[in-house]
Design a protein that fits this description.
This protein is α+β, with helices and mostly antiparallel strands and 190 residues long. The protein is built from nine helices and five strands. This is Holliday junction branch migration complex subunit RuvA.
Protein backbone atom coordinates (compact mmCIF):
# COMPACT_ATOMS: atom_id res chain seq x y z
CA UNK A 1 0.00 0.00 0.00
CA UNK A 2 1.24 3.49 -0.80
CA UNK A 3 0.44 5.73 2.18
CA UNK A 4 2.11 9.00 1.24
CA UNK A 5 3.71 10.54 -1.80
CA UNK A 6 6.14 13.45 -1.81
CA UNK A 7 7.77 15.13 -4.75
CA UNK A 8 7.59 18.00 -7.16
CA UNK A 9 4.20 19.08 -8.50
CA UNK A 10 4.55 18.65 -12.27
CA UNK A 11 0.96 19.10 -13.54
CA UNK A 12 -2.44 20.18 -12.25
CA UNK A 13 -5.53 19.14 -14.22
CA UNK A 14 -8.56 18.88 -11.92
CA UNK A 15 -9.10 16.44 -10.31
CA UNK A 16 -5.76 14.93 -11.28
CA UNK A 17 -2.26 16.04 -10.37
CA UNK A 18 1.08 14.67 -11.48
CA UNK A 19 3.70 14.33 -8.76
CA UNK A 20 7.29 13.84 -9.94
CA UNK A 21 9.21 11.63 -7.49
CA UNK A 22 12.84 11.42 -8.61
CA UNK A 23 11.97 11.20 -12.28
CA UNK A 24 8.88 9.00 -11.93
CA UNK A 25 5.56 10.80 -12.40
CA UNK A 26 2.62 9.56 -10.35
CA UNK A 27 -0.90 10.49 -11.40
CA UNK A 28 -2.93 11.20 -8.28
CA UNK A 29 -6.65 11.98 -8.13
CA UNK A 30 -7.47 14.54 -5.44
CA UNK A 31 -10.68 16.12 -4.12
CA UNK A 32 -11.14 19.77 -5.05
CA UNK A 33 -10.57 20.85 -1.44
CA UNK A 34 -7.05 19.43 -1.67
CA UNK A 35 -6.57 20.68 -5.23
CA UNK A 36 -7.22 24.30 -4.24
CA UNK A 37 -4.64 24.08 -1.44
CA UNK A 38 -1.84 22.69 -3.60
CA UNK A 39 1.33 24.74 -4.14
CA UNK A 40 2.32 26.07 -7.56
CA UNK A 41 3.81 23.96 -10.33
CA UNK A 42 7.40 22.96 -9.70
CA UNK A 43 7.06 23.26 -5.93
CA UNK A 44 7.38 20.43 -3.41
CA UNK A 45 4.14 18.68 -2.46
CA UNK A 46 3.30 15.90 -0.03
CA UNK A 47 -0.01 14.04 -0.11
CA UNK A 48 -1.46 11.25 1.99
CA UNK A 49 -2.73 8.57 -0.35
CA UNK A 50 -5.13 5.69 -0.72
CA UNK A 51 -4.14 3.10 -3.33
CA UNK A 52 -6.92 1.28 -5.18
CA UNK A 53 -6.15 -1.82 -7.21
CA UNK A 54 -8.79 -3.00 -9.65
CA UNK A 55 -8.73 -5.59 -12.36
CA UNK A 56 -8.26 -2.93 -15.03
CA UNK A 57 -6.45 -0.13 -13.16
CA UNK A 58 -4.29 0.93 -10.25
CA UNK A 59 -5.31 4.35 -8.98
CA UNK A 60 -3.80 6.66 -6.37
CA UNK A 61 -6.10 9.04 -4.51
CA UNK A 62 -4.39 11.89 -2.67
CA UNK A 63 -5.46 14.00 0.29
CA UNK A 64 -4.13 17.07 2.03
CA UNK A 65 -5.11 15.89 5.51
CA UNK A 66 -5.55 12.69 7.48
CA UNK A 67 -9.20 13.54 8.21
CA UNK A 68 -9.95 13.79 4.50
CA UNK A 69 -8.37 10.41 3.85
CA UNK A 70 -10.21 8.86 6.81
CA UNK A 71 -13.53 10.23 5.54
CA UNK A 72 -12.75 8.88 2.05
CA UNK A 73 -12.06 5.44 3.53
CA UNK A 74 -15.32 5.53 5.48
CA UNK A 75 -17.21 6.50 2.32
CA UNK A 76 -15.81 3.71 0.15
CA UNK A 77 -16.83 1.11 2.75
CA UNK A 78 -20.47 1.89 1.94
CA UNK A 79 -22.14 -0.43 -0.54
CA UNK A 80 -22.65 1.31 -3.87
CA UNK A 81 -20.15 4.09 -3.14
CA UNK A 82 -16.92 3.71 -5.02
CA UNK A 83 -13.79 5.83 -4.95
CA UNK A 84 -15.05 8.18 -7.68
CA UNK A 85 -18.28 8.88 -5.79
CA UNK A 86 -16.37 9.35 -2.54
CA UNK A 87 -14.04 11.79 -4.28
CA UNK A 88 -17.07 13.65 -5.63
CA UNK A 89 -18.56 13.92 -2.13
CA UNK A 90 -15.31 15.29 -0.71
CA UNK A 91 -15.02 17.70 -3.63
CA UNK A 92 -18.56 18.96 -3.07
CA UNK A 93 -18.33 19.51 0.68
CA UNK A 94 -15.69 19.63 3.37
CA UNK A 95 -15.27 16.79 5.85
CA UNK A 96 -16.67 19.06 8.56
CA UNK A 97 -19.77 19.82 6.47
CA UNK A 98 -20.23 16.12 5.74
CA UNK A 99 -19.90 15.24 9.42
CA UNK A 100 -22.41 17.93 10.32
CA UNK A 101 -24.86 16.72 7.66
CA UNK A 102 -24.54 13.17 9.00
CA UNK A 103 -24.96 14.29 12.62
CA UNK A 104 -28.10 16.28 11.78
CA UNK A 105 -29.30 13.72 9.19
CA UNK A 106 -29.54 16.37 6.46
CA UNK A 107 -29.88 14.51 3.17
CA UNK A 108 -30.60 17.79 1.35
CA UNK A 109 -27.04 18.98 1.87
CA UNK A 110 -25.58 15.77 0.45
CA UNK A 111 -27.95 15.69 -2.54
CA UNK A 112 -26.40 18.97 -3.71
CA UNK A 113 -23.19 17.09 -4.53
CA UNK A 114 -23.11 16.23 -8.26
CA UNK A 115 -23.76 12.54 -8.85
CA UNK A 116 -25.46 11.95 -5.50
CA UNK A 117 -29.16 11.19 -5.61
CA UNK A 118 -31.70 10.91 -2.84
CA UNK A 119 -31.23 7.17 -2.25
CA UNK A 120 -27.44 7.41 -2.15
CA UNK A 121 -27.62 10.39 0.21
CA UNK A 122 -29.94 8.51 2.55
CA UNK A 123 -27.66 5.46 2.46
CA UNK A 124 -24.67 7.68 3.27
CA UNK A 125 -26.49 9.18 6.24
CA UNK A 126 -27.49 5.76 7.52
CA UNK A 127 -24.09 4.12 7.06
CA UNK A 128 -22.00 7.04 8.33
CA UNK A 129 -24.05 7.75 11.44
CA UNK A 130 -21.68 7.52 14.38
CA UNK A 131 -18.67 6.91 12.12
CA UNK A 132 -17.81 10.47 11.17
CA UNK A 133 -16.87 13.17 13.61
CA UNK A 134 -14.88 12.29 16.70
CA UNK A 135 -13.75 8.99 15.13
CA UNK A 136 -11.72 10.82 12.49
CA UNK A 137 -10.88 13.95 14.45
CA UNK A 138 -13.59 16.28 13.12
CA UNK A 139 -15.19 18.71 15.50
CA UNK A 140 -18.92 18.81 14.84
CA UNK A 141 -20.57 21.84 16.33
CA UNK A 142 -23.58 20.84 18.36
CA UNK A 143 -26.30 23.42 18.09
CA UNK A 144 -29.80 23.51 19.44
CA UNK A 145 -32.65 21.83 17.60
CA UNK A 146 -34.08 25.20 16.59
CA UNK A 147 -30.76 26.29 15.08
CA UNK A 148 -30.54 23.03 13.18
CA UNK A 149 -34.08 23.53 11.88
CA UNK A 150 -33.28 27.10 10.82
CA UNK A 151 -30.16 25.91 8.99
CA UNK A 152 -32.09 23.15 7.22
CA UNK A 153 -34.81 25.61 6.19
CA UNK A 154 -32.29 28.05 4.71
CA UNK A 155 -30.52 25.29 2.80
CA UNK A 156 -33.88 24.00 1.54
CA UNK A 157 -34.66 27.51 0.29
CA UNK A 158 -31.55 27.35 -1.87
CA UNK A 159 -28.96 29.20 0.19
CA UNK A 160 -25.47 27.73 0.34
CA UNK A 161 -24.30 26.02 3.51
CA UNK A 162 -21.80 28.81 4.09
CA UNK A 163 -24.36 31.63 3.70
CA UNK A 164 -26.88 29.82 5.89
CA UNK A 165 -24.26 29.22 8.59
CA UNK A 166 -23.17 32.87 8.53
CA UNK A 167 -26.76 34.04 8.87
CA UNK A 168 -27.28 31.56 11.71
CA UNK A 169 -24.26 32.87 13.62
CA UNK A 170 -25.77 36.36 13.67
CA UNK A 171 -28.95 35.11 15.38
CA UNK A 172 -29.49 34.94 19.14
CA UNK A 173 -28.93 31.41 20.48
CA UNK A 174 -32.38 31.07 22.08
CA UNK A 175 -34.47 32.27 19.13
CA UNK A 176 -37.45 30.26 17.90
CA UNK A 177 -37.50 28.57 14.52
CA UNK A 178 -40.00 30.83 12.72
CA UNK A 179 -38.49 34.05 14.10
CA UNK A 180 -35.00 32.77 13.34
CA UNK A 181 -35.89 32.00 9.73
CA UNK A 182 -37.45 35.45 9.29
CA UNK A 183 -34.40 37.23 10.73
CA UNK A 184 -31.98 35.07 8.76
CA UNK A 185 -33.86 35.75 5.51
CA UNK A 186 -33.75 39.49 6.23
CA UNK A 187 -30.01 39.27 6.86
CA UNK A 188 -29.44 37.25 3.68
CA UNK A 189 -31.52 39.68 1.61
CA UNK A 190 -29.08 42.53 2.33
Amino acid sequence: MIGRISGQLAEKNPPEVLVDCNGVGYEVLVPMSTFYNLPGLGEKVSLLTHFVVREDAQILYGFGSATERAAFRQLIKISGVGPRTALSVLSGMSVEELAQAVTHQEAGRIIKVPGIGKKTAERLLLELKGKLGADIGVQVSVSSDSQSDILQALVALGYSDRDAALALKALPKDIGVSDGIKLALKALAK
